[in-house]
Amino acid sequence: MATTAPVHVHAAPQGFIRRYVFSLDHKVIGIQYYFLALAAVFVGMFLSLLMRIHLVWPTAQIPLFGEIKPETYLTLLTMHGTIMVFFVLTTAPQSGFGNYFLPIQIGAPDMAFPVLNMLSFWTTFVAFVVMIAAFFVAGGAPLHGWTGYAPLSAVPNSGPGEALGADLWIVSIAIFCIASLMGALNFITTVLDLRAKGMTMMRMPLTVWAWFITAILGLLAFGVLLSAGILLLMDRNLGTSFFVPGGLNFTGQLTVTPGGLSPSTTNFTHHGGSPLLWQHLFWFFGHPEVYIAILPGMGVASQLLSTFSRKPIFGYKAMVYAIMAIGILGFVVWGHHMFMSGMSPYSAFAFSIMTMCIGVPSAIKTFNWLGTLWHGRIRLQTPMLFAIGFVSLFVSGGLSGPFLAQPVLDIPLHDTYFVVGHFHLIMGVAAIFGIFAGTYYWFPKMFGRMMNERLGQIHFLITLLGTYAIFMPMHYLGLAGQTRRYSQFTEVAYQTKLVPLQTFMTYAALITIAAQFLFLINLFWSMRKGAKASDNPWESTTLEWSTATPPPHDNFGGQTPVVSHGPYEYSVPGAPRDFIMQTDPATTATH
Amino acid sequence: MGLALLVVIWLITFVSTYFFIAKTWWLPHGASTSAAFIDGQFTLTFILMGIVFVAAQLALGYLVWKFRDRPEAAPVEYSHGNTRLEVIWTTLTAILFIGLNLMGSRVWANERFAPASPGAVQVEVTGMQFAWYFRYPGPDGKYGPTSAKLMDASAGSEAAIGLDTGDPSAKDDVVAGVMYVPVGRQVDLTLRAVDVIHSFFVPSFRFKQDAVPGLAIHMHFTPTEIGDYEMACAELCGLGHYKMHGMVKVVSQQDFDSWLAAREAEKQ
Question: A29-38 pLDDT, tens per residue?
């Protein structure tokens, strides 16, 4: 039930530390998450730049880095994937924007558990520090890829970086899981208990629905990854055998894990573990995780397409049911990552059908986005450009899904660049476009100033063309059989012929990465020098636009908002202006 | 900006589609019995998804240009959607996706559910950091036992896979670094790995299967054309992953027999 009584009334803190560092205010915590993700995305992007350079100029001398060795390349791809998935795609859209805007959009003064909220941010921060530390320990960061398949990840002598670096990688992810569980609990409770009067579930903005369902996915998925990570740590350090079978041989050494509980009890020989168990546990988390990354972007795209088309979202209920369907089906498709793994070919049938089914709600969303544009009056401001880019990328990345979802087509395509192109378009770049769209849209509310439109347009055009130029050719490479995670293509003759296309992609990456500095400049310049923003610069309807800019400590300045309308009432016939805010009095008949 | 957006989205659509249709980069020539099935299903999926891709992107570009905000723009149509349309496109998408899936499943079942035929050529594939070894059971049709304790990667061949040469069934086992198979005969593979997961991938055969430590995975395929076919490891296996490639030589039955006989003779 929605309640109007604030659960906790805390006065605005005065000291710098309580206000900006260990703050309990969801808005400050949201901004902290956002900047953590911003730092992480530039680290992750820098790693991808090094990878792209190494692939086409393997002997290049990189300043401060020297020449990149094959094992260093694998380290780069492992850390690129891990940092991007966890600390960018999970952190910015959900924890960043969700923290800042979820309570305001439902009319709450804060999250349900402010202390837990602060804890979850600082726990995430610790996880990031531990992850980065893996670069600096003896042996460096691990090379087992972001999926950490055992036994490569489970046996310290399977390669460089698989000693202390791999332990830190696992510990960091485990800490991240704990942080995400705390965040998920908070989001769910807040949505269920702290909605303002009149804010029924079916009046919630689609952003709130996306954050809510994402939080449920997080609650169910991160616990499993946490357990899997602990088991992997035990295999590595305590001599257990969850993921390592007996009788393995690593360049002359049997699988003996040194160390253990005390130096005198060394020589644990593994026996009876299953490498496939790790894959099942990992992908039970890993597939919902891709929806954790993309659902908030879908919410933002829906919100913006409606707002900037000046039209109600097409099929609000269908959009809500589609988010739920994606959330549920997301938990029964993990096996499609394992068609080639040695898993029973019969189970591939089930996973494959379920995967095709998840395409249906995704298609519904796309049709409804196009339907929203139809006969609208589209304002092509920067936030909208990125929302439109999101739809384009979502379609492109989504349509390669039905290839990979068919086991028989997965045979030639699995572990090739086709897969890399697919997931970068749909959960990488589409999600990033969702973050950009959210940033350009909510920046005025967060910082009280407008971002520069001209810089935003240039940033958008280069980024859209650039991402297609980088990731579309990956599909061609995959068709031709180019395997992923190869540091060089010099050894296999048919792959050497594909290097010119790789070179083109590297040039595209250089230009696209350079364009991201336009965004960075726009962000920081606009914070200080941008034009002053009004309370509702986009003429939006949701609750964050009916309070001051930036919002006061308790969000609504002592007022308790009352909601009388659905979230997307634009161009209502007979209304005095072309939008009715959710808090406007109920004088006009709306939904 | 509306026109710029239309041009950019349409340009991306046409250029992306052109390289698929021109087949500038495409699946390599198929050389196994399943290749034709798989390529047919691929082409069907490609045509259907291609139509949806082009239609959706062109519509997106057109809509944002056509309905852009400008002084003479028509008033907005106030609508919360259309339930009948929702039902129609949900049903169509479901039929399209699930139908495609069922069609592809038949091929998968043919390939994976039936065991290899009794007359198939037996080959055991062993993956290790960072090499492939191929073992033939010899005239007795039985693979000799192997043991991790006997493995010596630096010695290569029999020692690399830890073959227990003292065992009678191991006496006639042939271990090679290149895979020879006769054309037109089914090959019954047993895939093994001794350290981490590797993946046996021959693009021309449309064949891929992980080799997993602790498992002996049985798979079969039938090569249809004589020639040399490159294989590459397709599962990240460590620092030398990119170097872990091999060669499958498909030869006539006669050449295969004489090659195998020569290897047996070397052993005696």
Answer: 999 999 999 9
> Cβ separation of B38 and A412 shorter than 8 Å?
yes
The DSSP-derived string for A345-395 is HHHHHHHHHHHHHHHHHHHHHHHHHHHHHTT--B---HHHHHHHHHHHHHH
| Amino acid at position A452, single letter | N
User: What is the torsion angle, in degrees rounded to the nearest 10, for the CA atoms of residue A7, residue A13, residue A17 and residue A19?
Assistant: 70
d(CA A541, CA A550): 17
Size of interface A-B (CB pairs under 8 A): 337
Residue A101's nearest CA partner among A429, A439, A389 is A439
Contact B94 A357 (CB under 8 A): yes
Cβ atoms of A220 and A289 within 8 Å: the answer is no
- How far apart CA B169 and CA B143 sit, in angstroms, is 6
pLDDT tens-digit profile of A179-197?
A: 999 999 999 999 999 999 9
- Asked if A405 is an interface residue toward chain B (Cβ–Cβ < 8 A), one would say yes
CATH number (domain holding residue A361): 1.20.210.10
β-bridge mates for residue A377, sequence order:
none
Using a CB–CB cutoff of 8 Å, tell me whether A56 touches chain B: no
Average pLDDT over every residue of B142-149:
90
Residues of B whose CB is below 8 A from A385: 1, 5
Q: In what order do the strands lie in the sheet with B187-193?
A: B174-176, B131-136, B121-128, B187-193, B217-221
Query: What does the block give as tokens for A136?
Result: 């600096």
| Domain coverage including residue A316 | 26-237+274-580
Per DSSP, the three-state class of A257 is strand
Nearest-10 crossing angle of helices A164-193, A70-82: 10
Taking only residues 93 to 122 of chain A, the set having a beta carbon closer than 8 angstroms to any beta carbon of chain B reads none
Query: What digits encode the pLDDT tens for the residues B73-111?
Result: 889 989 999 999 999 999 999 999 989 888 888 778 877
Of A181, A214, A177, nearest in space to A292 by CA = A214
Count of the separate structural domains present in chain A:
1
Residues 130-159 of A with CB under 8 A from B: 143-145, 149, 151-152, 155, 158-159
* Record: contact A376-B108, CB cut-off 8 A: no
The tokens describing B19, both together, are 């390289």
Cβ(B214)–Cβ(A275) below 8 Å: yes
Going along A16-150, which residue ranges are E strands? none
Among chain B residues, CA nearest to A158: B238
Report strand pairing: B179-182 vs B245-251: parallel
In a domain, A255, yes or no: no
Residue A437 belongs to some domain of the structure: yes
Contact A103, A6 (CB under 8 A): no
Q: Phi and psi (nearest 5°) for B236?
A: -55, 120
